[in-house]
Structure to design on (307 residues):
């Protein structure tokens, strides 16, 4: 009677590069989860919140307290509490009401988020899964556009819009924000798509799916966290933008940032109105961020670890 020894199952040895990457990830995770790292994060969060807290305090102080003393004197001898600053800011302090600028900001922000995401999704899919000549060179060129300051493009774009009659219209603002946001959007979405296993794409192709079907039915459900993460970034950047608004917007297309700037005149500093207007301008971004926070965190962490 003979017996045979079953073959030993030897786990394939990992490559040195992959093993080194795993060790670095484990070391970084250990450092970031240490008590010292948590303490530093708390300190940074507190320091980051102090200016906003001071702005909130000044928004409830009567004139001229916000311009004559620091916000920490609210509990002192010149402390005074009032909510009339918010009503004056909402009504425009004698000029254009602030809610009209908020409506313009909504009209500007939504297309300025949707258009670049739509174009970036198509471009990222092409860079990630469609082979074509010069793909790597073109992707590097798109990525390099992120380092170009937007200030150098303002005057050429303003001249171009004037030729087509788009100056001081919503289209000029939408196109500008789309141009400035596309490089980052393509880069982020491309990197996320490349983390999706290729076997999933190949299985869909074996079943007869084309590029449109793969993009809509296979990739889009997986891309929701990344789309929302970039959408929040783009929304906050467009909503808080002043440079593009000053360059391309007109009297009827001014966003909230330009409206807040218009509260000050050569005869009035509006030191008690500006903090209230700034707090009102943060309400919409705060609601958007808090409502999409779980998608935002998933989008930032997606693709960081493959497998």
């Amino acid at each position: 009677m003979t017996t045979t020894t079953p073959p030993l199952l030897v786990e394939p040895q990992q490559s040195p590069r992959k093993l080194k990457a795993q060790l670095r990830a484990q070391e970084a995770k250990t450092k970031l989860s240490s008590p010292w790292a948590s303490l530093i994060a708390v300190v940074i969060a507190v320091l980051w919140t102090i200016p906003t807290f001071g702005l909130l305090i000044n928004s409830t102080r009567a004139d001229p307290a916000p311009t004559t003393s620091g916000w920490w004197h609210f509990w002192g001898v010149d402390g005074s509490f009032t909510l009339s600053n918010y009503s004056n800011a909402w009504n425009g302090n004698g000029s254009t009401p602030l809610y009209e600028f908020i409506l313009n900001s909504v009209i500007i922000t939504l297309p300025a988020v949707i258009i670049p995401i739509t174009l970036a999704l198509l471009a990222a899919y092409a860079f990630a899964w469609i082979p074509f000549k010069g793909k790597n060179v073109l992707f590097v060129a798109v990525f390099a556009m992120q380092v170009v300051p937007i200030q150098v493009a303002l005057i050429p774009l303003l001249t171009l819009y004037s030729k087509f009659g788009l100056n001081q219209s919503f289209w000029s603002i939408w196109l500008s924000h789309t141009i400035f946001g596309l490089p980052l959007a393509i880069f982020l979405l491309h990197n996320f798509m490349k983390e999706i296993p290729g076997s999933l794409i190949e299985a869909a192709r074996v079943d007869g799916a084309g590029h449109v079907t793969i993009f809509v039915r296979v990739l889009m459900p997986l891309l929701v966290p990344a789309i929302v993460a970039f959408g929040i970034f783009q929304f906050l950047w467009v909503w808080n933008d002043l440079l593009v608004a000053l360059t391309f917007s007109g009297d009827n297309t001014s966003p909230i940032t330009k409206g807040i700037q218009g509260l000050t005149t050569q005869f009035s500093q509006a030191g008690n109105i500006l903090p209230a207007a700034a707090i009102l301008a943060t309400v919409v971004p705060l609601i958007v961020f808090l409502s999409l926070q779980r998608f935002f965190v998933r989008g930032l962490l997606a693709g960081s670890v493959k497998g």
